[in-house]
Amino acid sequence: MGRRRQFVNLTDTDMKKQAIILLGAALLSLAGTWRAGAQEFGLQLYSLRDQFKTDVEGSLAQIQDWGITYIEGGGTYGYSQDEFLSLLAKHGLKTASIGASFDQLEQDPAALIEQAKAFGATYVMCAWVPHNGDEFGEAEARKAIEVFNAAGKVLSDAGLTLAYHAHGYEFRPFEGGTLFDLMAREAAHYKFEMDVYWVQHGGADPLALLNKYPDKFALMHLKDLQQGIQGNQTGHEDVETNVVLGTGQIDIAGLVKRGAELGIRYMFIEDESSRVIEQVPQSLKFLRSL
Questions:
Q1: Angle between helices 138-157 and 109-119 (to 10 degrees)
Q2: CA 191 to mean position of chain CA atoms
Q3: How far apart, in whole angstroms, are the C-alpha atoms of residue 131 and residue 38?
Q4: Is residue 269 left, alpha or beta, with left meaning phi > 0 and alpha meaning psi from -120 to 50?
């Protein structure tokens, strides 16, 4: 009762001041909530490929225990699609992106639309362009551009985004730039997923590439490269060179910051090493400290 009398006795000016303070606090709270939800550190399920071989549900429970919600996947690991989707729901996991092979994109993008919709994904990611051995050149790049633009248009019409995950061989020289520059320049109906490890391993600067093509990257793979490792443009490397984020030679903090500024919402940890169970919590601790 006393509190009500105190409020009633306030002057009009005091009441206006109090209303402004309350409104400001509410707006700051909403802004904080938006910032916290605007960027998601997820997991590429390939990181747990060995664990999935022996314990599918236990692996999903592990991801949940790490406090991760969003994943990049698309496989069902021996389960029916409905059964696997039920397991994802049970462990509070949401699929933001599914993987797709080059052949699937070329031959049946409609099936990928159905799969993506079933998983609730908004992105379809392709991580490899077929080529013989180490022979990736202009012909292979132009073939990829053709397939990605055609499939990307079909996916886009269905409300999905196609993202190509470069693996390093795209950074070979071409006409004063690189084959990646060609693929980015001709990308009318597809985006890219930047795997920061493979960009650096292929001889490019991930942060400089983000700045060069600020509207071309829709997703990111966060993966750090062991100090002292010399990269190449083959798209291959010993998986044990995947180290805890922030301990390798890549500016993970700078890339996360710039990615957030560019509106890249989903950043998936991908750790292919045999130490993945030990390293992912350390990588998450680093990311959450930024």
A1: 50
A2: 12
A3: 37
A4: beta
User: Nearest 5°: phi and psi at 124?
Assistant: -120, 125
User: How far apart are the C-alpha atoms of 138 and 171, rounded to whole Å?
Assistant: 11
The whole model's pTM is what? 0.86
Eight-class DSSP state of 102: H
Residue 167, pLDDT score: 97
Rounded Cα distance, 150 and 112, in Å: 14
| Positions of E strands within 198-245 | 217-222, 224-225, 242-243
**Bridge-partner residues for 257, per DSSP?**
none
Percent of the chain with pLDDT over 70: 87
58-70 CB burial, b ≥16 within 10 A, e <16: ebbebbeebebbb
Q: What is residue 264's three-state secondary structure?
A: coil
Mean pLDDT score of the chain: 91
pLDDT tens figures, 209-224: 999 999 999 999 999 9
